[in-house]
Write a structure and sequence with these properties.
Strands 1-2 form a two-stranded antiparallel ribbon. The radius of gyration is 20 Å and the shape is elongated. The chain has 91 residues and is mainly alpha-helical. The chain has helices at 2-25, 62-70, 72-90, and strands at residues 48-52, 55-59. It folds into two domains: 1-27; 31-90, no CATH class. 57% of the residues lie in helices and 11% in strands. It binds zinc ion. The site of zinc ion (ZN) has 8 residues, from helix 2. Residues 36, 38-39, 59-61, 63-64 line the site of zinc ion.
C-alpha cells in the first residue's frame, strides 16, 4: 500500500514537472515575421518587442505599439494570416 502510494506520488510529481517544463518552453511564441505587422515596414534597430498573450510582437516604432494596443486581437489575426500566406508560398 505504501509502495503504491509512493509510486502514485512519483507519477504526479513527474507529470507536474513535465507540464511545467513544457509551458516554460512555449511560454512565448517568437514573432514569425520580418516586418512590422502595423505598417509592413522592415524591422530595424528601432524595432520594439512586446509580448501579448504569449505571442512575441515586434513593431517598427513606438507609434505602432499604440496602434497595436488599440486593437491587439486584429493584429494577432493579421500575424496568423501572414504566416499562413508565407507557408502557402513556400509549397
Ligand atoms: Zn512603426
Amino acid at each position: 500500500m505504501t509502495t503504491l502510494l509512493r509510486s502514485c506520488l512519483l507519477v504526479v510529481v513527474l507529470l507536474v514537472g513535465v507540464s511545467g517544463l513544457a509551458s516554460a518552453v512555449d511560454a512565448v511564441k517568437p514573432y514569425p515575421l520580418k516586418t512590422c505587422i502595423v505598417t509592413g515596414d522592415d524591422l530595424d534597430a528601432d524595432a520594439t518587442v512586446k509580448v501579448y498573450k504569449g505571442q512575441e510582437i515586434k513593431l517598427c516604432c513606438k507609434k505602432c505599439i499604440k496602434k497595436f494596443d488599440a486593437d491587439p486581437e486584429k493584429y494577432l489575426k493579421e500575424i496568423d494570416e501572414a504566416v499562413k500566406k508565407e507557408q502557402a508560398g513556400k509549397k
